[in-house]
Write a structure and sequence with these properties.
Layout: E1 11-17, E2 24-40, E3 47-48, E4 62-68, H1 77-87, E5 92-94, E6 97-99, E7 104-106, H2 121-129, E8 148-149, E9 159-160, E10 162-170, E11 173-181, E12 186-189, E13 194-197, H3 210-215, E14 231-236, H4 242-259, E15 260-261, E16 271-276, H5 286-307
Parallel strand pairs: 4-7, 14-16
Antiparallel strand pairs: 1-2, 2-4, 2-16, 3-7, 5-6, 8-9, 10-11, 11-14, 12-13, 12-15
Helix pairs in contact: 1-2, 4-5
């Protein structure tokens, strides 16, 4: 039983999936707010309000985190999440207003269909309306709707990515992850070391193995900065400080490194958020939580690509027998 991020008490997840082309956004809502941290490893990130999460800065809690397609345009969807939270009376009191705190990050999915269609404020609001406490749908939904993987040798040899989730409970504390996988590199099963989705051979019928190809001297296609990106939210019910949340977000990237190769490239904007809801009422060893964060992140990546369905010209992992 791999669970999902909503196994962490106090969280709700909602997807908006656009029917006009493969794109969408996914929101993680936090009842009562959560301490948060973030770690950005890719060289081409698209983010909003991440600087607020630095341990030295004033804001102590966030009310939601948004993951969105649409490249930088998709950051508009965070405005819709803020509007929904404001309608619910949620936010930091500032003078006469309450200001919801909604960090966000985006991935590039403009390859598919009409690139002028991307998540906007209405999409973010709709994702909030759809949010619930049941395990979120996986694969071609929300921020994973237009996600692709294995683009190192060009989009024409890529495969379908997606969004996935997982959780574990150890010593009465739960750690969960929700990851939208849109990587430049291949997705590799750590248990076998073999790719399950990624760049395909020139005839498109089999997995190439990007790292093996690089070692043979095959050169990658010219890279376009920001044309990929894997995004995720890791959450725990433990009580965290902002510094601990940042460290857990940092360690969670080890989960990406276990199952995406290459990762954190010049074309990726890989960004992971960490949330501490505190609903368990106690703190825990940060090293333990970080190790569990890496584990559930890796599991969520594998679930994302295994749940994905094919699109025209983009086979899914199951199509190649992975």
């Amino acid at each position: 039983m791999l669970g999902s991020i909503v196994d962490v008490a106090g969280l709700r997840v909602g997807h908006f999936t656009d029917t006009r082309r493969p794109t969408g956004c996914t929101v993680v809502l936090v009842d009562g707010g959560a301490v948060a941290g973030v770690d950005v490893r890719g060289a081409a990130p698209g983010t909003r309000d991440t600087e607020l999460l630095a341990p030295l800065n004033t804001v102590e809690q966030v009310h939601a985190v948004l993951l969105s397609g649409g490249s930088a345009f998709g950051l508009d969807a965070a405005g819709g999440v803020m509007r929904w939270l404001e309608e619910c009376g949620v936010g930091v009191p500032v003078g006469p207003a309450r200001v919801p705190i909604v960090p966000a990050a985006v991935l590039f999915d403009l390859w598919l269909g009409d690139a002028s269609i991307r998540p906007d404020a209405a999409a973010g609001h709709a994702a909030c309306l759809a949010a619930g406490r049941t395990a979120p749908a996986e694969g071609n939904v929300g921020a994973g709707a237009g996600a692709t993987v294995g683009k190192l040798f060009g989009i024409g040899r890529a495969m379908k990515g997606g969004i996935g989730s997982a959780s574990v409970t150890v010593d009465g504390l739960t750690v969960g992850a929700l990851v939208a996988v849109n990587a430049l590199g291949d997705v590799v099963d750590p248990s076998t070391g073999r790719p399950i989705a990624g760049a395909r051979t020139a005839d498109g019928r089999a997995l190439l193995g990007s790292m093996d190809a690089l070692l043979r001297g095959e050169l990658p296609a010219p890279l376009q900065p920001g044309s990929a990106t894997t995004l995720g939210v890791i959450a725990t019910d433990a009580v965290l400080t902002k510094a601990q949340a940042q460290k857990i977000a940092q360690m969670a990237h080890d989960g990406l490194a276990r199952c995406i190769n290459p990762v954190h490239t010049m074309g990726d904007g890989d960004t992971l958020f960490a949330l501490g809801t505190g609903t368990a009422g106690r703190s825990a060893n940060t090293t333990l939580l970080g190790a569990l964060a890496a584990e559930v992140t890796a599991r969520a990546v594998l679930r994302a690509v295994r749940a994905a369905g094919s699109l025209p010209g983009l086979p899914a992992a199951g199509d190649l027998g992975a």
